[in-house]
Amino acid sequence: MLKMQRPKSFKDLVLGILIVAVLGVGAYFIADALKAELVPGDIVVRSGNEEITALQNVTGEQRKNGSKACRGHFEIEAVADEFPVIRMDKGIVLEASQDPYGAMYYTVYNEDFSELYYRSERFAYPENDGTYYVVIDTAWGDKNHYFSTEHGFTLVIENSN
Q: Cβ(152)–Cβ(83) under 8 Å?
């Protein structure tokens, strides 16, 4: 059991308070340094035995203090060649590396870059065989600090009839 003793002098009292204050400030800075820095999450796509990580583009960052940074969105015709490719084997599974902040929105483009559908909250498989470009818009973080991102991949559907 910790036994408190009465300080012998005012100097001892001040020294004790100073030691407690220094320890408290040190603990605060250590805890702050150990706090993980917020980073945008990834989206992994699986189908059969294949697995890819969708290409990420950070489109913005917002902080509670009002500071924000905005960046450009994918120009689908310019970046489609950079998208990782996955072939659909009965279906696909999308897995986020962390919980998104808000909804995920799906845009699917045909091989000629025309939109099949735009910013749907539900991913629907294209009905026909072909090559499709999938872009997922979402955000990562919380109300105090978040990143808005888009993630892209190429989906190849070849049904065996």
A: yes
Whether the model pTM is above 0.90:
no
Cα–Cα distance, 155 to 137 (Å, whole number): 16
Q: What is the pLDDT of residues 18-67, one digit of tens each?
A: 666 666 666 555 544 444 567 899 999 999 999 999 999 999 998 888 77
Cβ atoms of residues 153 and 84 within 8 Å: yes
Rg (CA), the chain: 25
- Judge whether 119 and 107 are in contact, CB under 8 Å: yes
The number of beta carbons lying within 10 Å of the beta carbon of residue 117 is: 13
Residue 10 has which token pair? Answer: 């005012």
Extract the tokens encoding 56.
């990420």
Residue 108 has which token pair? 């699917």
pLDDT tens string 66-100: 777 778 899 999 999 999 999 998 889 999 999 99
From CA 8, how far away is CA 16, in angstroms rounded? 11
pLDDT given at position 34: 44
Number of Cα atoms under 13 Å in the Cβ half of residue 96: 19
